Amino acid sequence: MERWGVAEPELIEAFGHVRDAWMSEDLDGWIGANRFYPGTVDAINFSSRPVYIITTKQTRFAQALLKAAGVSGDKVPVERIFGHGSGSKISTLNKILDMPENAGCHIQFVEDRYETLEGVSLSMLGAPVSLYLATWGYNTERTRKRAERNPLVQTLSLSDFCTKMQ
Length: 166
Known about the structure:
Rossmann fold
Protein backbone atom coordinates (compact mmCIF):
# COMPACT_ATOMS: atom_id res chain seq x y z
CA MET A 1 0.00 0.00 0.00
CA GLU A 2 2.82 2.37 0.90
CA ARG A 3 4.84 1.63 -2.23
CA TRP A 4 1.87 2.33 -4.52
CA GLY A 5 0.45 5.17 -2.45
CA VAL A 6 -2.90 3.44 -1.95
CA ALA A 7 -4.98 3.75 1.20
CA GLU A 8 -6.93 0.88 2.76
CA PRO A 9 -10.39 2.31 1.88
CA GLU A 10 -9.34 2.54 -1.78
CA LEU A 11 -8.25 -1.11 -1.79
CA ILE A 12 -11.46 -2.24 -0.10
CA GLU A 13 -13.47 -0.36 -2.72
CA ALA A 14 -11.36 -1.83 -5.53
CA PHE A 15 -11.81 -5.37 -4.17
CA GLY A 16 -15.55 -4.70 -3.94
CA HIS A 17 -15.64 -3.68 -7.59
CA VAL A 18 -13.69 -6.78 -8.59
CA ARG A 19 -16.09 -9.00 -6.62
CA ASP A 20 -19.10 -7.22 -8.15
CA ALA A 21 -17.70 -7.74 -11.65
CA TRP A 22 -16.88 -11.41 -10.97
CA MET A 23 -20.36 -11.98 -9.56
CA SER A 24 -22.06 -10.35 -12.53
CA GLU A 25 -19.94 -12.28 -15.04
CA ASP A 26 -19.74 -15.65 -13.26
CA LEU A 27 -21.89 -15.89 -10.13
CA ASP A 28 -21.52 -19.67 -9.90
CA GLY A 29 -17.72 -19.38 -10.12
CA TRP A 30 -17.64 -16.73 -7.40
CA ILE A 31 -19.95 -18.72 -5.15
CA GLY A 32 -17.86 -21.86 -5.75
CA ALA A 33 -14.72 -20.05 -4.62
CA ASN A 34 -16.39 -19.13 -1.31
CA ARG A 35 -17.77 -22.35 0.10
CA PHE A 36 -19.01 -22.85 3.67
CA TYR A 37 -17.46 -25.45 5.93
CA PRO A 38 -19.39 -28.75 6.06
CA GLY A 39 -22.34 -28.63 8.43
CA THR A 40 -22.32 -24.88 9.04
CA VAL A 41 -25.27 -24.05 6.80
CA ASP A 42 -27.48 -26.65 8.49
CA ALA A 43 -26.25 -25.48 11.89
CA ILE A 44 -27.31 -21.92 11.07
CA ASN A 45 -30.64 -22.94 9.52
CA PHE A 46 -31.59 -25.17 12.44
CA SER A 47 -30.27 -22.94 15.21
CA SER A 48 -32.66 -22.54 18.10
CA ARG A 49 -31.32 -19.03 18.75
CA PRO A 50 -31.02 -15.87 16.66
CA VAL A 51 -27.95 -15.84 14.41
CA TYR A 52 -25.97 -12.71 13.58
CA ILE A 53 -23.17 -12.54 11.05
CA ILE A 54 -20.27 -10.15 11.75
CA THR A 55 -17.82 -10.15 8.87
CA THR A 56 -15.10 -8.10 7.24
CA LYS A 57 -16.77 -8.69 3.85
CA GLN A 58 -19.19 -6.07 2.59
CA THR A 59 -22.74 -6.97 3.62
CA ARG A 60 -23.92 -7.51 0.04
CA PHE A 61 -21.29 -10.23 -0.48
CA ALA A 62 -22.08 -11.98 2.79
CA GLN A 63 -25.79 -11.86 1.93
CA ALA A 64 -25.15 -13.34 -1.53
CA LEU A 65 -23.05 -16.16 -0.06
CA LEU A 66 -25.62 -17.00 2.60
CA LYS A 67 -28.45 -17.04 0.06
CA ALA A 68 -26.51 -19.19 -2.42
CA ALA A 69 -25.57 -21.65 0.34
CA GLY A 70 -29.23 -22.06 1.29
CA VAL A 71 -29.26 -20.11 4.55
CA SER A 72 -32.82 -19.03 5.16
CA GLY A 73 -33.45 -15.30 4.87
CA ASP A 74 -35.79 -15.72 7.84
CA LYS A 75 -32.95 -17.22 9.91
CA VAL A 76 -30.44 -14.49 9.02
CA PRO A 77 -32.24 -11.42 7.64
CA VAL A 78 -30.09 -8.66 6.21
CA GLU A 79 -30.50 -6.55 9.36
CA ARG A 80 -28.59 -9.27 11.23
CA ILE A 81 -25.63 -9.17 8.85
CA PHE A 82 -22.97 -6.70 9.93
CA GLY A 83 -20.43 -6.35 7.13
CA HIS A 84 -17.52 -4.06 6.46
CA GLY A 85 -18.44 -0.51 7.38
CA SER A 86 -20.73 -1.56 10.24
CA GLY A 87 -18.09 -0.72 12.84
CA SER A 88 -15.62 -2.79 14.76
CA LYS A 89 -16.57 -6.24 15.97
CA ILE A 90 -16.55 -4.84 19.51
CA SER A 91 -18.96 -2.03 18.66
CA THR A 92 -21.13 -4.46 16.69
CA LEU A 93 -21.32 -6.86 19.64
CA ASN A 94 -22.36 -3.93 21.83
CA LYS A 95 -25.06 -2.96 19.28
CA ILE A 96 -26.40 -6.51 19.34
CA LEU A 97 -26.40 -6.59 23.14
CA ASP A 98 -28.26 -3.25 23.22
CA MET A 99 -31.07 -4.45 20.95
CA PRO A 100 -34.32 -4.76 22.94
CA GLU A 101 -34.97 -8.24 21.53
CA ASN A 102 -31.67 -9.39 23.02
CA ALA A 103 -32.29 -8.16 26.57
CA GLY A 104 -30.96 -10.78 28.97
CA CYS A 105 -29.34 -12.82 26.19
CA HIS A 106 -25.89 -14.33 26.27
CA ILE A 107 -23.91 -14.04 23.03
CA GLN A 108 -21.66 -16.78 21.76
CA PHE A 109 -19.13 -15.04 19.52
CA VAL A 110 -17.27 -17.36 17.15
CA GLU A 111 -14.25 -15.93 15.34
CA ASP A 112 -11.37 -17.51 13.44
CA ARG A 113 -8.87 -14.73 14.07
CA TYR A 114 -7.36 -14.95 17.55
CA GLU A 115 -6.09 -11.37 17.59
CA THR A 116 -9.67 -10.17 17.19
CA LEU A 117 -10.73 -12.31 20.15
CA GLU A 118 -7.92 -10.89 22.30
CA GLY A 119 -9.21 -7.36 21.71
CA VAL A 120 -12.81 -8.36 22.26
CA SER A 121 -11.95 -10.23 25.46
CA LEU A 122 -10.50 -7.12 27.07
CA SER A 123 -13.16 -4.73 25.80
CA MET A 124 -16.12 -6.94 26.67
CA LEU A 125 -15.06 -7.97 30.19
CA GLY A 126 -18.18 -8.47 32.28
CA ALA A 127 -20.49 -8.51 29.25
CA PRO A 128 -22.67 -11.58 28.63
CA VAL A 129 -20.43 -12.81 25.82
CA SER A 130 -18.57 -16.11 25.45
CA LEU A 131 -15.63 -16.07 23.04
CA TYR A 132 -14.70 -18.99 20.80
CA LEU A 133 -11.80 -19.47 18.40
CA ALA A 134 -12.98 -21.48 15.41
CA THR A 135 -10.16 -24.03 15.10
CA TRP A 136 -11.17 -24.84 11.53
CA GLY A 137 -10.73 -21.27 10.32
CA TYR A 138 -8.01 -18.80 9.54
CA ASN A 139 -5.45 -19.67 12.22
CA THR A 140 -2.49 -21.92 12.91
CA GLU A 141 -1.67 -24.57 15.48
CA ARG A 142 0.53 -22.02 17.26
CA THR A 143 -2.37 -19.57 17.42
CA ARG A 144 -4.71 -22.26 18.74
CA LYS A 145 -2.19 -23.04 21.51
CA ARG A 146 -2.20 -19.34 22.49
CA ALA A 147 -5.99 -19.39 22.62
CA GLU A 148 -5.96 -22.47 24.83
CA ARG A 149 -3.86 -20.53 27.37
CA ASN A 150 -6.31 -17.61 27.42
CA PRO A 151 -8.96 -18.19 30.11
CA LEU A 152 -11.37 -15.82 28.31
CA VAL A 153 -11.29 -17.72 25.00
CA GLN A 154 -12.37 -21.28 24.28
CA THR A 155 -11.32 -23.22 21.22
CA LEU A 156 -14.19 -24.66 19.19
CA SER A 157 -14.03 -27.49 16.67
CA LEU A 158 -16.32 -27.53 13.64
CA SER A 159 -18.38 -30.42 15.02
CA ASP A 160 -18.76 -28.66 18.40
CA PHE A 161 -19.86 -25.49 16.58
CA CYS A 162 -22.57 -27.40 14.75
CA THR A 163 -23.73 -28.96 18.03
CA LYS A 164 -23.75 -25.62 19.91
CA MET A 165 -26.01 -24.05 17.30
CA GLN A 166 -28.87 -26.42 18.13
